[in-house]
Design goal:
The protein has 152 residues and is mainly beta. Helix content is 10%, strand content 41%.
Length: 152
């Protein structure tokens, strides 16, 4: 009887344990989507544009963020192929800086982001980086950096 009780308890524990899926894969930023901005895009100062991207993950997405900062010193962390024409190196006076994070609704493996970005009218024009970051629920992260130009 004791053996039967032990077997019964072990069976209940085995059936009751849910196997968690382990996430070892970072999320992706879909390059074939109608994204904006793309490498070497021009953005007008004083106007609003729509950031568009599609994110995917094998298990579950978590959040995404955008980072816009000047590239007046011609530093580089672009992840895209192709060089853009860079203006002359200059000292920033009133550069555009934007850091924003957004939660992705729970349970999604694919998400199409669409965010309005207001570009102030009084910022420095010139070379900028537009960094896109996506993180899945497990904490894996993927970055994409594109070079853009803010024009008058």
């Amino acid at each position: 009887m004791r053996k039967l009780s032990i077997i019964l308890v072990l069976t209940i524990l085995f059936i009751g344990c849910k196997k968690e899926e382990i996430d070892n894969t970072p999320p992706e930023i879909d390059s074939n989507f109608n994204s904006f901005p793309i490498q070497c895009s021009e953005i007008k100062r004083g106007e609003t544009f729509t950031f568009k991207a599609r994110f995917t993950d094998d298990i579950e997405l978590g959040s995404f963020g955008i980072d816009i900062h000047h590239n007046f010193d011609h530093h580089n962390h672009s992840t895209e192929a192709g060089e853009c024409d860079l203006g002359t190196i200059k000292t920033p006076v009133n550069p555009f800086v934007l850091l924003k994070n957004y939660e992705i609704p729970t349970g999604l493996q694919s998400y199409e982001a669409s965010v309005f970005v207001d570009v102030p009218n009084d910022i420095d024009t010139g070379d900028y980086h537009f960094m896109i970051k996506v993180t899945d629920k497990a904490g894996w992260q993927t970055l994409k950096g594109v070079s853009v130009k803010i024009i008058p």
